[in-house]
Amino acid sequence: MSLPPIECMYITQEILREGKNGNSNFSFSSSVPMLRFLYELCWTMVRGELPFQKCKAVLDAVEFTERVLEDELGSCFADIVTQMAQDLTLSGEYRTRLIKLAKWLVESSLVPLRLFHERGEEEFLWEAEMIKIKAPDLKVKEVRVNTRLLYQQTKFNLLREESEGYAKLITLLFRGSEDSTQNASTARIGIIKSLIGHFDLDPNRVFDIVLECYELQPDNNGFLQLIPIFPKSHASQILGFKFQYYQRMEVNTPTPFGLYKLTALLVKEEFIDLDSIYTHLLPKDDEAFEQYNGFSTKRLDEANKIGKINLAATGKDLMEDEKQGDVTIDLFAALDMETEAVAERSPELENNQTLGLLTGFLSVDDWYHAHILFDRLSPLNPVAHVQICKGLFRLIEKSISLAYDIVRQTHLQNFGSPSGPGVDNMDTSTSASSSFIDLPKELFQMLATVGPHLYRDTLLLQKVCRVLRGYYLSALELVTSADGVSNAETAAVGYQNPRLHLKEARSRVEETLGACLLPSLQLVPANPAVGQEIWEVMNLLSYEVRYRLYGEWEKDDERNPTILAARQTAKLDTRRILKRLAKENLKQLGRMVAKLAHANPMTVLRTIVHQIEAYRDMIAPVVDAFKYLTQLEYDILEYVVIERLAQGGRDKLKDDGLNLSDWLQSLASFWGHLCKKYPSMELRGLFQYLVNQLKKGQGIELVLLQELIHQMANVQFTENLTEEQLDAMAGSETLRYQATSFGVTRNNKALIKSTNRLRDSLLPKDEPKLAIPLLLLLAQHRSVVVINADAPYIKMVSEQFDRCHGTLLQYVEFLCSAVTPAAAYAQLIPSLDDLVHLYHLDPEVAFLIYRPVMRLFKCQGSSDVFWPLDDNETGNITMAYSESESKDDLSRVILDLGPPRKPIVWSDLLGTVKTMLPSKAWNSLSPDLYATFWGLTLYDLYVPRNRYESEIAKQHAALKALEELPDNSSSAINKRKKDKERIQEALDRLTSELHKHEENVASVRRRLTHEKDKWLSSCPDTLKINMEFLQRCIFPRCTFSMPDAVYCAMFVHTLHSLGTPFFNTVNHIDVLICKTLQPMICCCTEYEAGRLGRFLYETLKIAYYWKADESIYERECGNMPGFAVYYRYPNSQRVTYGQFIKVHWKWSQRITRLLIQCLESTEYMEIRNALIMLTKISSVFPVTRKSGINLEKRVAKIKSDEREDLKVLATGVAAALAARKSSWVTDEEFGMGYLELKPATSLASKSLAGNTVSVQNGSSINVSQSEAAGGRAVAFGTQQSDVNLVKDQIPRTKSEGRLEKAENVSLGKSDLKTKGGTSANGSDAVLSVVLATSQAGTGKSLENQKQLDESSNKLDEHLAKVPAKNSAELEPLSQSTQNEILAGQYAPVWRPMRHQMTPQEIQTM
Fold it and tell me: pLDDT tens, 31-42?
């Protein structure tokens, strides 16, 4: 093995060659560094490349770069050789040469021997024969010498061994306490060292005495300058021996507090390490934790037993527990348990040295190390000890002192300012430089550590709350003023990024509230001031953050026995109070509830809410008792209500799937009454919850919105209005209010305030406005509730839809009344185009929302004439028929709400309206008529003069009653004066509003008179006008609400009375009753069926009014286009009074038949809806005794049905029918001589059989979704023209033969080829043939049976020839019509011909 080659920079081959040859004249060309040269020279000789003897020659020939002494050269040689000797990889040959080199260097006197003795290893020296002792023996000798020289000395450890030296030391230490200057300390250090050296004192004993003197004088900081002269490692050992002494069994004295404080000071000054002293302390952590766990478990069990029922208790014990004496509450029960627990744990603080060291850290204000110990000892809950808690309080007080001074000074300045005193006026950040408040992060660590035990110092708790509020407001102010303050000024305050500082401040405040302030509140006995201070901090946070803190509040504290005991006690006391709460003791027990809620708001309020859900009768007394609560408790109460709503595991509907659960109804009623009574209730959280639920497609909780609007704004959705109330709904605001306010005064200040609060909660100034999102989500939910409803029965779906629809109506009415003026409402509402196409609302809902906005359109140039009033100046323009003038007129009507909304022209609105329906719908309707229908209200068409006069009479009677009161006391006189003023004000309003209403109706009628001629004149398909009008206008709106149902009937009557061209009133009623009424009954919900019944009632009432007297008929109908026989020709021949009687007979029979069909149906909804409709029309229908008896039989059968709700409805209907039985007339009396009736024959049985077949097969009706955007309309497809006047009218004469043959011919050639809804909508031929058939006579003989059979055969032959593609379309026609013919009840039904019949053709028939 060879040595690793090294790169020789100076000992080159030439030098080696010259050196070997012995040339004494060679020399180096330049000077070289000494160390590198000697290193290369030594390695060259060890490898044998240069003899030892030539070394001197080389050294003589070289010249070094630095000046080298002879001793320095030898020292370098010794270092190089000893270093090479330590290389264990040298081979034996090289090591031998190295040893010889060392010997030669010594022999040649280049290296002194002593240098090798100093620096060489023992083994190398032994091999080089430089020592005479073996290497192991030399090592042992070295150790002994070092021990004798360094460690063996004469030192005195005991005081008695050198009493003089120690006496002088102690005297010096105590005397020097008076002077702690730098010079004095330096002098003392010198004297101590002299004493140690002179008297041979043990330094460790001197250090111990110094520490003991420091322990006795902890405030003397001069000792801190003495300690550094001693080794740091000795301090922890000396202190450890002191702690171990007090751990002995024979020592009964507890560890003195001075020792803990001394140790804490040394750790704080970093003279010793915490871990080095922590190992000497007892008991060990695991042992202490195990002991405390047993103690804590015992206390938790005791706390959980509070309020539990003892099943083993005797009756006497139970009776004593439920004694009916005075109710008392113990606010200090939990605190007493805490005091007992602290007293029980007091020995732990004396025996646990780690807790003692913690108190030492707190006493010297060393939070850094105290925090470390708190974290280590957290399982022991060290803060529960009063001494530790007080030390922590002292640190907290010290940390907030400067900030509290700023808060206090600012508050005093504001107190003396003109703005007035009050905490709310306290602005802790009036200037970013002068009153900026910053709190150290250590303060928040302390508050998190102290946790709920801050209750022990309520004064400090309130200071902390005020400082936190000032801290957060200061951060907010810093962000607010950041834009106006330069970066230099902001940096001067201490923060380059104010927003980051605000985020940090918010996080710290939230953490402190959740970990310290809120838990501490539970242990403060009935102190509302503390709760108010905490609320002042909580109020700075958003409700989302507050609710999160409430949710985390109880979860984090369930492991604390004291808090658990406080909760259990509060829950028990609350239940005890609620058992006895009544109106008589409301004041006393209400205050007790408030005292409990001040300390444990979450527990008490949750318990109360649970009781209210179970017992609805408690709502009123509990709401009254809540007047003593603070704002914090009101806020927690709202969280509890939302928590109960969102809590899973409970059904929100009863088992029947229809009605709301009792707990939900009780909770909604409670919340409504509470928010109405107390103005401090915040509602944003609840509204956000409802919005979130609607986004999920869940709308059951909308009952809370209903209750809120009802209680706070007195806006109630009532489906079953009385006749007087429904009539008043057409009147002015005052009349509507008088009819529906149920005794609530219109100018009730409390009601006005609560209404405004509800509005402001939905439309706050700074928060997100939820009014419109809630409205849109509610409208969208109404559209999808039928599709997405998870219900097994259709009646459940119906109930959900009605509930959602009622909430929508109530909410829209509230918005329209609360958001004033109307322009403010218009600013909030999206445009009609957005409502329909962006938010996909049904047209009827979109118009419900947008209708108040439509009434803000006005003509340019007139500031007080709004649509739909008539502008007299533009009357001539609106009557013009030219297209250019019409467009110019539309451009004059404009809606200008100001920025940021763009002005909207009426023509643009009509353009939006035109996109709401399929294009084919406009073949039979016009956008003007459509917009007019949906834009008007009942107020525009009808003046309920009787209701106005009735209310005015009531007010006069009230005035008269006031004047007759005998009490003449001053208070009574003042009260009467106020009442008179109020009544007189109502009288004046009613009188003026009646006059204004009459003017409004007259003006609207003038406008309608101007516009009527262009509504239907331009429609190319006049045959479908009535069907489209019913489908797109009447049915969607008449089923929307009761006032809308009346409005639809009034609008139709207005169209008739105006003489609207191409609108045929008789055909409208005919299509309504004969074509569309039955499918509408089948597809309506419960409330919609009632509204449809109300619309039918109003329609029949008008029809019966016309039928009652021929003079009335001639006056109101005889010359109207609506009664034209050919309504394509408005000026054609009119329907005679006799013909109208016959058509009326047909309608009566048709209604009877379809009601019987529904009542005999197996479908629940058909039966229910038929009963509801019969209830609504019972005052005008049935009229004939025969129809009434037939209906009575069906209703009587339903009265024995097993379904209770149907039985109740049937019972009511039966009573209504029985009440009107005396007014029923015979068929002859109904016909008034215009009907030819035949006596009853044996064919009655056949007629009944035919009717049964007809009922089973039904009519050919196709119910489909409307093509309108999201619309719920009913479209009627290809259906046989049910001009079944002959079905209800009795036998014909022989002259019918020609007519029947003509009918069969037309059936084959026209009706079977008719597509879409042409035949269903009717034609001029339909009406004319109906009337012609009536004129031809109504007798029917048995001789026509052969003709009926022939007609049936022809019909069968024709149906066999119909192409397959039309078979599905014609199947219902073939079944129903054929069965009717074969049953012998009806004559063949006339079908409209494809071409338009002329009057001459009609006459020839």
Answer: 888 888 888 888
